[in-house]
Specification:
The structure holds two protein chains of two kinds.
Chain A: H1 2-13, H2 17-30, H3 35-44, H4 54-64, H5 67-77, H6 80-87, H7 98-107, H8 113-122, H9 126-137, H10 146-154, H11 161-168, H12 176-182, E1 203-204, H13 207-210, E2 218-224, E3 227-234, E4 237-242, H14 253-258, E5 263-273, E6 276-277, H15 280-284, H16 294-299, E7 302-312, E8 315-316, H17 322-331, E9 338-340, H18 349-357, E10 364-371, E11 385-389, E12 393-404, E13 413-422, E14 425-432, H19 438-450, E15 452-456, E16 459-462, E17 467-472, E18 474-477, E19 485-488, E20 491-496, H20 507-512
Parallel strand pairs in A: 1-11, 7-9
Antiparallel strand pairs in A: 2-10, 3-4, 3-5, 5-6, 5-7, 7-8, 10-11, 12-13, 12-16, 12-17, 13-14, 15-16, 17-20, 18-19
Chain B: E1 8-10, E2 13-16, E3 21-23, E4 31-33, E5 46-51, H1 53-63, E6 68-73, E7 78-80, E8 83-89, E9 97-103, E10 106-110, E11 132-137, H2 149-162, E12 168-171, H3 177-187, E13 194-196, H4 201-209, E14 217-219, E15 229-232, E16 249-253, H5 260-265, E17 270-272, H6 280-290, E18 294-300, H7 302-311, E19 316-318
Parallel strand pairs in B: 3-4, 4-5, 5-6, 10-11, 11-18, 12-15, 12-16, 13-14, 13-15, 16-17, 18-19
Antiparallel strand pairs in B: 1-2, 2-3, 7-8, 8-9, 9-10
Classes of the chains: A alpha+beta, B alpha/beta.
């Protein structure tokens, strides 16, 4: 329990991803089974435990400490579990294994729970009490995605992230076979049907680079601005995975219903109405939902546009050339809700450049270029697949707020809010954290320090003097932003030291791009 | 009891009419008795100042030679007007004292800031029997139970071993905390050079001169600082100075680090709970040990201490003195 509590504490204060990974990996290396498995499941939110309510905790605390002192303490600390962990009378400072705490929360009945929790708290030091209470309230909040967990695991031994992704969905806490495999044992054979298989990714390219390649050896398709998914239907079990292997089936029952095939297909998830593909913003409404209502299913129907097959009717096609996989894909009959991404007709790169410059729909964000003979390989190999994205949209905006960054940027103001003119007022339209070089960062930081007009905690308001060119990938209407629009992937593409702030773009200009 | 006339709270701070002096006054007065050198207790511009030799030295180092009209070093029991005054170690920082004021058969002890945790850089707190004990309440809530300082140093050393190529910048106030942290590291066997920010140099030198062993200290002002461990005043983290360090781990040594939200507001990655104040068990333990017939509470979270006294049936009242920093140099 001590090691787990120490890990949670470090994670709670560590903003940088790599440092987080290092903490997790070292914990997993040093901790025996089954504790490390339980810890991993707790961190990724995959640990199902009995949830302890705040009122139960308040009741326990009231038996140990004066109510008025507890109320004053809670006021000061602002978090109930933390308050109780801190004020709980000092106990034995024992170090029971995490598995004991997990077992207690898994098996204790409702009537016995308060006594069992108090008994456990009596055995722990303050930091372990907090870890235990966070576990009990299901409120760890350490921000470790399953993908980061797999990266930490991949750092420990031979299996790569791709190897781990392939078996991940057949695993359950405390993952003893998984750690056995990492330690040099046998690979756990996935018990689950419809497993995820690591996807093949492309690298960015441009016309100069393409000129060195033979167009005849490549095919091209539109690059759809949806979500890359893997649709798997295996012995009646159907699943939809994101490209990182997260199971997103529950949010897309309409897509699952439309999957009448046996195999594993690679494609784009899109919202479609009457044959038209809706912009990405509409698809976003369907994401991150535990359940989808009937109204949303009707107003935002989702479907698949496929471009590749990994497995088809029991046959693994991944080692076959793309042309063979494509032929199988085109020969299949998918029924409504699923279609195939068409190939583009081009003889030269200039033909393709012309198509890319004038796509038939706004939801196309460029073209994909794939070698005809490419096998389906996990990861992002350089060469067989390219993405040639449409040029980003840009506006000239004025910097209005700045905030200091973390990690290697600590001390520098690296988080910027920028605005566009509306009348003689600047309306904030977005935030950018990157796009500039280290040398530019130093210049920007100097500008911020010299032009601060007001401070709100860590945020500095700036004199409206500096214009930056902001590049972004798309625009959506948004009710959460004061400007009414939200940018996708905004970044500072150029600093316009030369341009007077009054000549920056107006909000109307941005609205016209919608 | 005839306590009120001995000391009374005024806008300038606690005032003794019989002796015509203030204790830790908040504005310039004719005669001041100073408990310790932190800037919210020791201010410049008084006519005469009475304090321990070390506190006077520290005031001179921080405020220049003309910080007061005249100074007097506290020694034994001293007669001031109708009262007798004595200085007793408070264990807070070098030179820190409680001030006992006796009139007739009634004694009030003004503890200033104090702690009961052993501190290798200053004399330990001395329990002085008294009728009225004036306590601080910086950490006057039961959530504050400070761990053994050695465990926090262990945590720091473990992080330095985990991230060997990242400099560790630890925020610690210039008077007392910085030297305390360094001394704790030395006690834990850490003997590599420790880099200190320029703002700490004068006081570190003074501590060494007073016989406190701080080991090898190197300046953290050069463009390239080779030491992995750097101690700096917290204000330096917001300055350009911090930019010379690549991907630093920022730490902060303070009792406030007990509470996560406080640590997060500071933006630290490595909170170290090291304090020079009493925590809740030390504060309530001191009240139990001294058994005064009345407790006065100065700055901090008075409500918690007042409630505890109510439960322990000790008459208590808050002094509501305004001007001591809410987060006293901690």
């Amino acid at each position: 329990m001590k090691a787990f509590a120490a890990l949670l504490e470090r994670l709670a204060f560590t903003p940088a991803r790599n440092a987080k990974l290092q903490h997790v990996q070292h914990y997993l290396e040093r901790t025996p089974d089954p504790d490390r498995g339980w810890a991993l499941a707790a961190l990724t939110g995959d640990l199902e435990l009995r949830r302890v309510t705040p009122s139960l905790l308040r009741g326990l605390a009231a038996e140990r400490i004066d109510g008025q002192l507890l109320a004053l303490s809670y006021d000061f600390v602002g978090d109930l579990a933390e308050t109780i962990a801190l004020v709980w009378p000092e106990g034995a400072e024992d170090d029971p294994p995490l598995s004991q705490a997990v077992e207690l929360l898994q098996t204790t009945g409702k009537a016995g729970l308060p006594g069992a929790i108090a008994g456990m708290l009596d055995r722990l030091g303050p930091s372990e009490r907090l870890a235990f209470l966070k576990l009990a309230t299901g409120n760890l909040r350490v921000g470790l995605s399953a993908r980061m967990a797999r990266m930490a695991l991949a750092g420990m031994g031979a299996p790569s992230v791709a190897d781990l992704e392939e078996i991940w969905h057949g695993l359950a806490p405390p993952y003893a076979p998984l750690f056995g495999w990492i330690g040099g044992g046998a690979r756990p054979e996935s018990a689950a049907l419809a497993p995820f298989r690591p996807v093949m990714l492309s690298t960015p390219t441009d016309l100069d680079e393409l000129r060195a390649l033979d167009p005849a050896e490549h095919v091209a398709e539109w690059k759809w601005d949806g979500i890359r998914v893997q649709a798997v239907s295996d012995g009646g079990v159907k699943r939809l995975y994101s490209r990182t292997g997260e199971d997103i089936s529950h949010a897309f029952p309409d897509v699952i219903d439309a999957m009448h095939f046996d195999g594993s297909a690679d494609g784009e998830l899109l919202v479609r109405r009457e044959g038209e593909v809706a912009p990405f913003g509409e698809l976003q409404k369907r994401l991150n939902r535990k359940a989808v209502g009937r109204a949303l299913l009707a107003s935002h129907p989702a479907g698949l546009r496929l471009y590749d097959l990994l497995i088809w009717q029991g046959r693994d096609l991944r080692a076959e050339p793309l042309t063979v996989r494509r032929a199988v894909l085109e020969g299949a009959d998918f029924g409504p809700g699923i279609d195939i991404s068409p190939l583009l007709d081009f003889a030269s790169w200039d033909d393709l450049a012309a198509l890319r410059a004038d796509p038939p729909a706004a939801v196309i964000e460029g073209v994909m270029i794939k070698r005809r003979d490419s096998a389906y390989v996990a990861g992002r190999p350089r060469g067989p697949w390219f993405k040639w994205k449409r040029d980003p949209m840009v506006v000239d905006a004025v910097l209005i707020y700045a905030q200091r960054g973390h990690g290697k940027r600590s001390g520098f103001h690296s988080d910027f809010t920028f605005g566009l003119w509306q009348g003689d007022e600047l309306v904030p339209v977005g935030k950018a954290y990157f796009g500039f070089t280290d040398a530019e960062l130093r210049e920007l930081d100097k500008f911020v320090r010299a032009n601060t007009t007001e401070r709100f905690g860590p945020v500095r308001a700036l004199a409206p003097k500096l214009v930056v060119e902001v590049a972004f990938e798309g625009l959506n209407r948004s009710t959460r932003h004061r400007s009414g629009v939200a940018m996708r992937f905004p970044r500072i593409s150029r600093i316009r030291w030369d341009k007077p702030a009054a000549e920056a773009d107006r909000l109307d200009t941005l609205e016209a791009m919608l | 009891m005839r306590a009120d006339p001995i000391l009374l709270p005024t806008e300038a701070g606690l005032y003794c009419p019989e002796g015509d002096f203030h204790i830790d006054p908040l504005r310039p007065v004719a005669r001041a008795l100073i408990t310790h050198g932190h800037s919210d207790h020791a201010r410049p511009g008084h006519g005469a100042v009475l304090a321990t030799r070390q506190t006077l030295d520290i005031m001179r180092l921080r405020m220049g030679p003309d910080f007061a009209g005249s100074t007097q070093v506290a020694a034994g029991e001293m007669r001031l007007g109708g009262v007798s005054v004595g200085f007793h170690p408070a264990g807070h920082v070098l030179g820190s004292s409680q001030i006992a004021v006796t009139s007739g058969d009634c004694r009030i002890v003004v503890s200033g800031d104090y702690t009961r945790q052993p501190n290798p850089t200053c004399a330990p707190f001395e329990a002085v029997p008294c009728d009225i004990f004036v306590t601080e309440a910086t950490f006057g809530l039961p959530v504050f139970r400070f761990p053994e300082p050695a465990t926090q140093v262990e945590k720091l050393l473990a992080s330095m071993a985990e991230f060997l190529d990242r400099p560790h910048l630890i925020g610690a106030y210039a008077l007392g905390k910085a030297q305390h942290v360094i001394a704790l590291l030395r006690a834990a066997g850490y003997d590599a050079p420790i880099a200190i920010h320029g703002a700490l140099k004068t006081l570190c030198d003074y501590y060494v001169q007073q016989g406190v062993d701080l080991g090898e200290l190197v300046p953290a002002t050069a463009d390239e600082v080779s030491a992995q461990l750097v101690i700096a005043p917290p204000s330096a983290f917001a300055s350009l100075w911090v930019q010379r360090f690549r991907d630093p781990v920022l730490g902060f040594a303070s009792g406030w680090m007990t509470v996560r939200a406080r640590a997060r507001q500071r933006g630290v990655e490595l909170p170290l709970v090291i304090s020079d104040h009493v925590d809740w068990p030390m504060l309530t333990g001191t009240l139990t040990e001294l058994g005064p017939s009345e407790v006065w509470v100065t700055h901090g979270t008075e409500d918690g201490v007042i409630r505890w006294c109510e439960l322990a049936q000790i008459p208590a009242r808050p002094l509501r003195l305004v001007g001591y920093e809410d987060e006293a140099e901690e």
